[in-house]
Specification:
5 helices; alpha+beta; 143 residues; two-stranded antiparallel sheet; 6-stranded mixed beta sheet
């Protein structure tokens, strides 16, 4: 299985108690803020400790932090839900590996099936390498 290599671990939880915090790490890394700041913004919008975030929670926190929803992709149930919630039409499906090269400059948060990663100037910042075939659900761009 092909992987998209992360260039850095980026921001991570310092107390190692947090779990399912990929949305926090993605916001911290792409938003150029501390883990604590990103955690507080997501918590303000409804993220619970040691739990993943729902799309509307992520969207509100990302928007408050200066991101805009750039696109929704695919026909999976997750993509259909996100398209409906954001009142958008989902575009053709794309994988993380194929999307990366089109993000040559700028700061992005890519939500894939079950995960969120920061992409800065076409480089993934995450705690691990990601499968290149992972389906992209939504893309947020820092304005």
């Amino acid at each position: 299985m092909q992987k998209v290599q992360a260039i850095s671990r980026g921001a991570t939880c310092l107390n190692e108690v947090e779990a399912k915090d990929c949305t926090v790490r993605a916001l911290a890394n792409a938003g150029e803020m501390s883990y604590a700041e990103a955690h507080a913004v997501l918590k303000k919008h409804g993220r619970k400790e040691r739990k993943g975030a729902f799309f509307n929670t992520m969207k509100a926190a990302y928007e408050e932090s200066g991101f805009v929803l750039e696109g929704v992709y695919g026909r999976t149930s997750s993509a259909r839900f996100v398209a409906n919630e954001s009142k958008r039409t989902a575009g053709k499906g794309i994988t993380l590996g194929n999307l990366i090269s089109s993000l040559a400059s700028g700061n992005y948060i890519v939500n894939t099936t079950g995960h969120a990663v920061a992409v800065v100037n076409a480089r993934i910042i995450d705690t691990f390498d990601n499968p290149a075939g992972k389906r992209v659900i939504s893309l947020f761009r820092k304005i």
